[in-house]
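Moderator note: this is an archived Q&A kept for reference. The question asked for a predicted structure of one protein chain; the sequence and the answer are reproduced below.
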Amino acid sequence: MVRISELYRRSHGMPRSSPPAVAAAAGVLGLLAGLAALTQADELPSRSDRAVDRAAELLRLHPERGWRIPALAAAVELSPAYLTRRFRQRFGHTLARFQLIQRIGAAQALLACTTEPVAKVGRRVGLPDPHHFNKLFRRVAGRPPSVFRAAHRN
């Protein structure tokens, strides 16, 4: 590794402590550490692990969508029962709880950086009933949306 970073530095005519040389050495170190971790684990993530990760990513990217387990399972090509079980093992939450956490996180971001009414924020994250949105927000965030907004306005 030292030899690789030294060759890179010399081939680009950089002094030993230049930022690009240090960055190159750090990149090589990171790559080697990642490869070592894979070698120690002695296996790559399974197809089902990748599918569960894709399901979580869909829930993160689209919190406003009312994902149902069968539709999400079909999107990642797993059976609903298997996705449900593997998701809980991997993330420690049910799919519904994970989706709720993602929705409330998106709502917190909107409340902190917009002046939209709380009810509109709830609709934008897929929770159209204002009373239900307030109740769920308070349950997850520990305080009502209006109090959260007031605390994060500055």
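Archived answer notes: The chain has three domains: 2-41, 47-95, 98-151.
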